[in-house]
Write a structure and sequence with these properties.
3-stranded parallel sheet, about 15% strand
């Protein structure tokens, strides 16, 4: 719809959070075509385009020859919590579980994580925290995949102190996504000094700063091997945790994000 304000002589700034046409629910249908049409409209009509990651910045340059400005998400240093609510609700203690936190949709890789974890030799549990996003059938599939492994827990959507406790006490945070824009949950996990395991897509790998490990996207065997290695090697996990919060909170500051965004709007108005 950006041509409408442009028709009235308005300045326009488009913020692209990610390449949503790559998500499973849109692939191969009208949704994919419509989102790509919106992408092209932004390229043609926007005075400025803001993107969150280097990968999307490269995509717009290579696909459309359009330069963009990268302004990532931000994060603030949180208050850690001891395991209280999560002990009462799920029987979880400090370092007794691995955590996946996000929407339960195919491109986030929860199915691959469950398949990988079932083959890991550990007493630690796997917590799948997150709700459905027009994906009830997929959530039912995840429950079927986890059936028979009592170590796997589904919490549903979590927030507030229960969410903070899950971040604060996890042994590993795992984000096996196939597609991301700029994963805020990954920034949050690092801000709690988590050791993080992610797929090797640029949108995740570029954020880690040495405070975690990656595996080839979609490779269940490689993910299983990475999880097994870290479950067996607490020293490496502790080393990854060290300085994670200082790194991410220093690199991705909300004050800087706001200042850069305001400058883009001011520059657009001057043009």
């Amino acid at each position: 719809m950006m041509w409408l304000p442009k028709l009235m002589g308005k300045h326009c700034v488009a913020t692209i959070h990610g390449l949503d046409w790559q998500r499973a629910k849109w692939k191969g249908g009208f949704g994919e075509k419509y989102i790509i049409l919106g992408e092209k409209a932004a390229v043609r009509f926007a005075d400025e385009i803001i993107v969150l990651s280097e990968g999307v910045q490269t995509y717009f340059r290579d696909t459309y020859g359009r330069e963009t400005t990268r302004i990532p998400n931000g994060v603030t240093k949180p208050k850690p919590y001891p395991a209280e609510l999560i002990r009462q609700a799920y029987g979880l203690e400090k370092d007794s579980y691995l955590l996946y936190l996000g929407r339960l949709v195919p491109e986030k890789g929860a199915a691959a994580l469950i398949n990988a974890f079932r083959g890991v030799r550990t007493d630690k549990r796997l917590v799948i925290a997150g709700g459905s996003s027009d994906s009830d059938q997929f959530v039912e599939e995840l429950h079927r995949l986890a059936a028979g492994d009592s170590r796997i827990i589904f919490t549903g959507f979590v927030q507030d102190q229960r969410l903070a406790e899950l971040y604060s006490n996890t042994y590993l945070y795992v984000l096996p996504s196939d597609v991301e824009g700029m994963p805020l949950t990954l920034l949050e996990a690092l801000s709690y000094d988590c050791c993080c395991v992610t797929s090797d897509i640029a949108e995740c790998a570029s954020v880690l700063g040495g405070h975690g490990m990656t595996f080839p996207k979609g490779d269940i065997a490689a993910l299983r091997e990475t999880l097994q290695t870290l479950c067996d090697d607490e020293a490496t996990v502790q080393n990854c945790r060290r300085g994670a919060s200082e790194f991410v909170c220093g690199t991705y500051q909300w004050d800087t994000v706001v200042d850069q965004t305001l400058e883009i709007y001011r520059a657009s108005m001057k043009k």
